[in-house]
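Consider this:
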Amino acid sequence: MVYLSNSCPCDFNRPPRNVHTEKPSVLSKKKDVADQLLRLFISHSANIYGVKFIVYNVHSLCHLAAECLDHGPADSFSAYPYENRLGMIKHSLKSGYEPLVQAANHDLEKKDSVIVLDIENNDVVTVPRKHHVLDELIDGRQFKYLKWRNIELKCNRKDSCFITHGGTVVMVTNIVKRGEEIFLIGYPFEHYENL
């Protein structure tokens, strides 16, 4: 609006007013004006864009002024938290096949996650995804993912390598938690060469 202030009428380039500071009688009048303007927008958009434009979301605009009067500003009762959660669920799906089963399994994986406190470093290590390797020599719960600070290790070819303090590169094949200890099972690289 600041950029357009020279070309806009003076009514448009005034500073925005805070609705929360208005008296209830003034808000009630503004609610009526807002309701009329929203309904006018809906009728004009139906004429301009066609009746198919008036879907559920556009129809809900005619109730918005009353909802704001009852519940406060629109952002205090919006559906964004629901939509964000829905987006996270959709992102966790691998395919369109049995999405409910996939979402339920993903939720179970989260509940099975284990958080281990690293007392010495005052840190938290999270191992959220359980799995099972049949021939594992170390007894304990097995996981395929570990998160510590900004480090993530996964039991896959892409995100499984790390360098020890001694300079050895290790490829993780399993993560085992026994008691309060976490063991990284893997193979050290035997040969190194520059690409």
In short: The CA atoms of residues 32 and 65 lie 8 Å apart.
